[in-house]
Amino acid sequence: MSANNQILIEYQNSKYFIIDKDIESNNDEGYLVGNAKTLEQAVKIANKYQEDNEVEYGLAIKLPKKKGGNIYAKNKNSKENKEN
Question: What is the average pLDDT score of the chain?
Fold first, then answer.
C-alpha cells in the first residue's frame, strides 16, 4: 500500500506549519503535524515525523514571496553582489 503523502512546511502569520498532505487529493487540506517559530525548528519536527511515519514524497517548503522575488533572494544592489 502506498502512502501518497508529502510533508509540507508552510510559512503563515509568522509561524511555520508542518502539514502531512495527501498528494492525490485536489484540496489544500492535510493533517497538522505541528508548528514552529523558525524554519530550522520546523525542519527538525518534519524530520522526526518522517522517522516515525511513512512519507512517500518527502518534504516541500513553501515560503512567501516579496514583491520582485523570493524573501530569501539577495538584493541586487547589496555590497555582496557588487563587483570590485
Answer: 83
- Residue 77 to residue 3: CA distance in whole angstroms: 46
Among the listed residues 45, 39, 34, the one whose alpha carbon sits nearest the alpha carbon of residue 11: 39
pLDDT digits (tens, 9 = 90+) for 49-69: 999 999 999 999 998 877 655
Which residue has cell 524573501?
Answer: 71
State pLDDT tens for residues 7-20.
999 999 999 999 99
Cell representation of residue 4: 501518497
Backbone φ and ψ of 58, nearest 5°: 75, -150
CA distance 13 to 35: 11
Q: How far is CA 21 from the centre of its chain?
A: 12
Q: What's the confidence (pLDDT) of residue 65?
A: 79
* 45/29 Cα distance (integer angstroms): 19
